[in-house]
Amino acid sequence: MHHAKRMGLGAVSTALVTLLCAPVASATTTQFVGPDHGREQIIRAVARLVQVENIDRGPSGPSLGDEIVSSGVLVRGDTQVGTYGQVCTVTRAGADEDTGDVQCVATVALPKGQITLQGLSLLPRTDPVITAITGGTGAYRTAHGYLRSVEISDTEAQVTFHIIP
After folding, report:
1. If you placed Cys at 45, which of 27, 74, 111, 149 could pair as Cys (CB 3.0 to 4.6 Å)?
2. What is the pTM of this model?
């Protein structure tokens, strides 16, 4: 993840969320996992940052309580399959502006429901970022699992959802 002043997508990746819907169905696979042989649904997409705002609450520069609010779209090829929004709060400011921790909460909206994510990311960001799937609505109302995100550029991340119903 990027430092607090340009953190946007990295934290999102932490949440950069997005999941499936009819257009993404072709990107979904099912496999057996866990001792209970529950089915895991895997969804892959690219999360693309559209808007980001850094809110500097304390002293100038990264400090405890600063926030990064961001939103974007999830795409497969040229097709948009969802949207996301996330808020990350600096929970530990390091000795320099490139170190610290951010707590992120994100929601991914898909045609069949929403998926929520939450996690703590360390700065500087190291790939992959793994974030917990904490729930959802609609077709994802019982979802849990994790999101794996790898930064592709300053505005994009490859995201893989591992959803356990």
Report:
1. 74
2. 0.77
